[in-house]
Automatic annotation (TrEMBL):
Residues 235-357 form the Glycosyl transferase family domain. This is Glycosyltransferase. It holds the Pfam family Glycos_transf_1. Keywords: Glycosyltransferase, TPR repeat, Transferase. SUPFAM superfamilies: TPR-like, UDP-Glycosyltransferase/glycogen phosphorylase.
Amino acid sequence: MSAPALPPGGGILYDISRLIARHANRTPTGIDRVDLRYALCAAGGEWGPAMPVAQRGGAIVEVPRSVARRLLAHLAERWIEGGPGTEIEPVLQQAGLLGPASEGAALAAAAAGPRQFAMRYPRCIYLNASHHGLSEQEALGRLLHHVGGGGVFFIHDLIPIEFPEYVAPGDKAVHEERMRTALSLGSALIVNSAATQRSVEAWAAANGFRCPPIHVARIGIEKGFEAEAPAAPPPIDRPYFVCVGTIEPRKNHITLLHLWRAMAQELPAEQVPKLVLIGRRGWECQHVLAMLDRCEALRPHVIELSGLSDAQMRAWLQNARAVLFPTFTEGWGIPVVEALALRVPVICSDIPVLREASQGLADPVDPLDARSWRERILTYAAESAEARAARRAALARFTPPAWDTHLTGVRDALHDAMRGAGTVPPLAGRKLAELPAGSVAIAEDPDPELDDFSQAVAAGDAARGRKDWIAAARAYRQALHQQPGEAGIWVQYGHMLKEAGNLKAAHEAYNQALSLMPRDADLHLQLGHLFKLANQAAQALAHYEMALALDHTNAEARRHVEWGQRQLASA
C-alpha cells in the first residue's frame, strides 16, 4: 500500500544542528544515522518543500541550501560510504554556522527565513530527529508560534531519565526538559521501538502531559548488512566474539572483561576465544579503561577497535561466533539488528527492547548472570562448523527492518501532523499572546434592512467615511452574511474592528481574508500593523517579512522589517 500524499501547503523545516556539530566525526552513532537519513530525505524533496535550519544564538536560522547540500554530501560519503569526506569546516565557518553566533539585527535577519517559509506553507512542520536543542524550549516556541503543523520530534530513548546513573551529572534534567518541549510543542512524535513508546507514555502520564500521536518507526539497516552481502575473509584465524558500542557504563563491558580475565587465568590460552570491542571510548568508565590499559591477563585476548567503516564492521560481524550485547538498557539495539540481518548469532541481555529488536531470535541472558554468559560463550566457541551453520540457518526467519519501511512510517507521521494543521496561514491557528478585545458588539443575525450585498457594502463605506467604525463594521458583517467569500470585505471589516479597538476580532477577520488570498502582500502588512499596535514585535515582524517577500518593491514593508529587527535585537 503506497504512502498517502502529503497535504497541500505542507513543508518541512528540518533541523540539521546536530549534523553541523558532528561534521568532523569519523563514524556515526545511531542517532547520527537517523538524523542524516531524514536530512537527505528532506533535502531531496521527498517530503515536499523543505528548508534546512539550525539553532544559533537562541534562534532558529536558515541554512543556505548550497551549504546544507555540501554538508550532507560530506557526511554521506563519510558515514554511509566509508570515504574520507570533503573539506567542510571552512564552508560552515564562512556561513556563520561554527564559532560565535551573529547578534542583533544580523541574527534577526537570519531568523527571518524560517518564519517566511512557515507563512508560505501553512501546513509547515518543524522536524527534529536528533534531540539536539530540544532543551531550548523558548527558541523553539518562538518558531513554532508561526508553524501551522507544529513540531514533529524523534524520541530515541528516555535513558537519561530512567537510568540517570549511566549518564553524566545533569543529563537527567536536560533530557526532562527535552521531553517537556516535545510533549508541549509536538504535534506528533516518532519513536524507534514499542519499548520507547511505552516509556514516553509512562513519563507523560506521570508528569501531567497529554501525548501527541506516537508513531513507531524501527530503524533500518544500512546497505551491505543484508544476509546476501558478499562474505568477507575472517579478519583473524581464531574464534572470536564481537561487542559493538561506545564504551560507557550502561553497555556493561565490565562483565565481559571480568569473564575474559577469569577465562585467561583458568583455561589454556588456545581455548580462550578473542573478544573484539568495536566502539570509541566514552565517559565515566575509568574502571573499564583501567582493565583495558593495565590488565596483563587480558592483553593477549582482547582487541579494541574504533572508527571502522561499515565494510570493516561487516567483515568482523560476519565471521564472529556471536555478537555479545550485555547492555543494561537501550532505546533500540542497532548492533543486534545488524548481526541478525547478517545471520550472525547474538547473545544479548534479556530486556524487552532487545526481545523486540531481535524478534525473539537472540539468545537472551540476564546482564548480571556472569555464569550463564560464560557458559554460552564457551559453548559457541567450541561448536563444530556444522552446528554453526545450523544455528545461522535458523536466523533466516529474521526480517530486517528496512529504511524504506521506516521512512514510510515517518511520512505517515508528517502526514498526520500536516493534516491536523489549520487551512489558513499559521499565525491564524497558533496560540498568541492576548489581543485587546475592546467592547465592540457585532450583530450576527442578518439585518432585514441590509439584505442586499451591495446595499450593505454601501452602508459600510458611508459609515467608514464619517469614521463611525462600529456602524461600518456591522454593515460589512451584514455584507459577509450574504457573500462570505469576499476577501476584500473581510479586510474592510478587519480595518473597522481594529479602528474600534477590538484587535482580537480584527485578527480573526484578517485571517479569514488570508485564507482566501494567502499571498496578498498588503494584507500581511496590515496584520503586521495590528500586532505592532498590540506590542507583539515578533508576530508583527513575521508578517512584515512575508509582505516584503511577496512584494520586494514595498518600501513600507521594508521599513517595518527593519523596525521589527531592531525591536527583537534590543529585546
